[in-house]
Specification:
By secondary structure, this protein is mainly α. It has a single domain (9-315), classed as Rhodopsin 7-helix transmembrane proteins (Rhopdopsin 7-helix transmembrane proteins). The chain is built from ten helices and two strands, in the order βααβαααααααα. It has a two-stranded antiparallel sheet with strand order 1-2. Helix 2 packs antiparallel against helix 9. The termini are far apart. It is found in: Cell membrane. InterPro entries: GPCR_Rhodpsn, GPCR_Rhodpsn_7TM, Olfact_rcpt, Olfactory_GPCR. The chain crosses the membrane at residues 25-46, 58-76, 96-118, 139-166, 195-223, 235-259, 271-290. It comes from Hymenochirus boettgeri.
Length: 316
C-alpha cells in the first residue's frame, strides 16, 4: 500500500469507553468464548465418536460447529485483548487480516446453511434417493466447495482493500474491523469497493438467501401432505433447529447492515453485532443440543456409558 511508510494505527471504538466496565466485560466475554469453544467442540466430538450420528445431516452440523469456532475466534480474542489493554489500537495489516477471516467464516456459514437446507429437502422430499444423492463423497465435495468459494470471495475484497490508502483519524465505530467501517476511514476513492459490495450483496446474497429458504417452501408443502401425524412431527423436528439458527443469523446480520443509518453504528447496532459475531456461535450448539433428537439421544448414551464406567471402577 502506498503512502503507508509511517506507522498508521486504526482505533476501534469498542463496546464501552468507561474504564470501570472493562474488567466485567472482559470476564463476561471470556466466559462466553470458552463456552462457545466447549459447546461446539463437544458437538464435533459427539458426531465423530457416535456411529449413530454418521449421517449427512450430522456431517454438516459438525462442519457448522467447526466454522462457529473459527468465526468466534476471529473477533472475540481481539475484543478480549482490547478490554485488557484498553488501547483498542490495531494496524492496517491486522485489520485487513481480521476482515479476511471474518468474511471467510461468515460467508462459509451462509453457504453451509444453504447446503443444509438442500440436505433437508432431499431427506424429506426425496427420501428413497437420499443415500444415493447425499453420500459421503457428495457431502465432502459440497463442504469443500463452500470453503473454496468463500476463500475466493474473501480474497477479492482483501485485494481491493490493499489498493487503498488510510489516513483518517476517525475511529472505527465497532469492536472489530468491519469492512464497511474500514472503507469510511480510507483517503482513497472507494467507489469500486462499495459497488462490489452492493453487487455481490444483491446477486450473491440474494442467491444464497433463495437457496436457503426456497427448499423449505417445497418441504412444508410435502410435510402438510403427509398423512401420519408422527411423520409430520418428525419432519418438523429435523427442520426446526436449522430454521432457528438461520433466522437468528440472518435476522441479526440484516439488521446490522441493511437498516437505515447502518453506517452510523449506534449502540443498538453494536449490540446486534455482538449477537451475530459472538453470541450466535454460542447459541448454535445449544439449539441443536436442545432441539435435535439425535444429539439428545447421543448425550443420554454418553451419560449412561459414564455411569456404567463409574460403577465398574467402584466395584474394582
Amino acid at each position: 500500500m502506498e503512502n503507508q511508510t509511517t506507522p498508521y494505527r486504526l482505533v476501534l471504538s469498542g463496546l464501552s469507553d468507561l474504564p470501570s466496565t472493562q474488567l466485567p466485560l472482559f470476564l463476561v466475554f471470556l466466559l462466553v468464548y470458552l463456552m462457545t469453544l466447549t459447546g461446539n467442540l463437544l458437538i464435533v466430538l459427539w458426531i465423530c465418536t457416535d456411529s449413530h450420528l454418521q449421517t449427512p445431516m450430522y456431517f454438516f452440523l459438525g462442519t457448522l460447529a467447526c466454522l462457529d469456532m473459527g468465526y468466534s475466534s476471529v473477533t472475540t480474542p481481539r475484543m478480549l485483548f482490547d478490554f485488557h489493554t484498553q488501547k483498542r489500537l490495531i494496524s492496517i495489516q491486522a485489520c485487513i487480516t481480521q476482515i479476511f477471516f471474518f468474511v471467510f467464516f461468515s460467508m462459509s456459514e451462509l453457504f453451509l446453511l444453504a447446503v443444509m437446507s438442500y440436505d433437508r429437502y432431499v431427506a424429506i422430499c426425496r427420501p428413497l434417493h437420499y443415500t444415493q444423492i447425499m453420500h459421503h463423497k457428495a457431502c465432502v465435495l459440497l463442504s469443500l466447495g463452500v470453503l473454496m468459494f468463500s476463500l475466493v470471495y474473501s480474497l477479492v475484497h482483501v485485494l481491493l482493500l490493499l489498493t487503498l490508502t488510510f489516513c483518517s483519524l476517525n475511529p472505527l465505530q465497532s469492536f472489530f474491523c468491519d469492512l464497511s467501517q474500514l472503507l469510511l476511514v480510507s483517503c482513497s476513492d472507494t467507489f469500486i469497493n462499495e459497488l462490489l459490495i452492493l453487487i455481490l450483496a444483491i446477486f450473491l446474497g440474494g442467491g444464497i438467501f433463495a437457496l436457503t429458504f426456497c427448499p423449505y417452501i417445497i418441504i412444508l408443502n410435502t410435510i402438510m401432505k403427509m398423512k401420519s401425524k408422527a411423520m409430520r412431527s418428525k419432519a418438523f423436528s429435523t427442520c426446526s433447529s436449522h430454521l432457528t439458527v438461520v433466522f437468528i443469523f440472518y435476522g441479526t446480520a440484516l439488521f446490522s447492515y441493511f437498516h437505515p443509518n447502518a453506517k452510523d453504528h449506534s449502540a443498538v447496532d453494536k449490540v446486534a453485532s455482538v449477537f451475530y459475531t459472538v453470541l450466535t456461535p454460542l447459541v448454535n450448539p445449544l439449539i441443536y443440543s436442545l432441539r435435535n433428537k439425535g444429539i439428545k439421544i447421543s448425550l443420554k448414551r454418553s451419560v449412561y456409558g459414564l455411569k456404567i464406567l463409574q460403577k465398574n471402577l467402584i466395584l474394582k
